[in-house]
Design brief:
The chain is about 40% helix and about 15% strand. The protein is of the alpha/beta class. The radius of gyration is 19 Å and the shape is globular. The mean pLDDT is about 95. The protein binds S-adenosylmethionine.
């Protein structure tokens, strides 16, 4: 009887034009292949250290990373850093005045630290440490050793300023993945320029996975 009622309710529901807004959806900035690459790369890091995501948005990728970490033998702390109000004025001005971008960059302003935290908790993730701040201003020494970082703030200025600080904390064998490193020009090509600049300064070979993930690996020895 219960099943019959449920089927009837679902039958009526799928007749409504609004049904597509209530389906279980996967809304990610990353493709499945990119997510898979991120998780496999994280899995390959064997040394102790924390996992950090800088630029977390609403938490879609954070949720996947944390769920994955729950099944890993090595237990790691997870830190999330975001303004939760999109790009900073300074970073936008740099794109406009120094990189010839004409966009106003008023995106990602509909998030909040509270909503992000609640999203993680709704998925059973209660132990994340969340910071609301400009990534350029953050004191990264509070993290201690860094095993893995997904760095996803899109623009040149914060990526350029923070990459050297992350690399300093990175354990041997640790990995930083910088999103938006595709070669095509776009309003978000600043992260890629900063990634290439960092690799060139440090003498590291550029490694671009799935056309947009810029990988930085710290040698084991
Ligand atoms: C592309 S979204 C992140 C998406 C997220 N990594 C995911 O995969 O779901 C970029 C995020 O970077 C944040 N952001 C941009 N500039 C920042 C800065 N200087 N400091 C901290 N967060 C910043 C924005 O608020 C936005 O939430």
């Amino acid at each position: 009887m219960k099943n019959k009622i449920l089927r009837l309710v679902k039958y009526l529901f799928f007749k409504l034009p609004l049904y597509r807004y209530f389906l279980p959806v996967m809304k990610f900035d990353m493709s499945i292949s990119q997510l898979n690459f991120i998780l496999n790369t994280l899995d390959e890091v064997k040394n102790d250290g924390a996992v950090v995501e800088i630029g977390v948005g609403g938490g879609a990728t954070s949720m996947v990373i944390n769920k994955f970490m729950k099944n890993m033998p090595v237990k790691r702390r997870f830190y999330a850093i975001d303004t939760f109000f999109g790009f900073t004025k300074e970073d936008i001005l740099y794109e406009q005045n120094n990189r010839g971008k004409v966009d106003n960059y008023l995106y990602y302003r509909s998030n909040s630290k509270e909503w992000y935290t609640k999203t993680l908790i709704a998925h059973g993730i209660n132990d994340a440490t969340v910071f609301k701040c400009d990534a350029k201003e953050f004191d990264y020494s509070v993290i201690g050793k860094l095993a893995f970082c997904l760095f996803d703030v899109d623009l040149f200025k914060p990526t350029e300023a923070v990459l050297p600080r992350l690399y300093e904390l990175l354990v041997p064998g640790g990995v930083i993945i910088v999103d938006d490193c595709q070669s095509e020009s776009s309003i978000y090509d600043g992260a890629g320029e900063a990634y290439r600049l960092f690799c060139s300064k440090m003498g590291l070979i550029e490694e671009i996975a799935f056309e947009k993930l810029g990988v930085i690996r710290k040698p084991l020895f």
